[in-house]
Design goal:
Layout (H helix, E strand, L loop, with lengths): L2 H21 L1 H11 L4 H22 L1
Length: 62
């Protein structure tokens, strides 16, 4: 992976992350408010699942 691929991947993350607030700001606000109610362990578990899913997708794409 070269530097250009890394910047492309980062740009795609930003595009995907911006879709929900763009399409439904009220829905995004409700989701964010619910996330604030989660305990630290729940957030860490969600982060771990996201990392593992990302690694699996990278492995499948390679």
């Amino acid at each position: 992976m070269d530097g250009g691929s890394l910047w492309t991947a980062l740009a795609l993350v930003l595009v995907i992350e911006g879709l929900l607030p763009l399409a439904s700001p009220g829905g995004w606000r409700r989701v964010f408010a619910q996330l604030l109610q989660w305990r630290d362990g729940q957030i860490r578990f969600f982060g771990l699942c996201s990392v593992l899913l990302g690694l699996v997708l990278l492995w499948l794409a390679a």
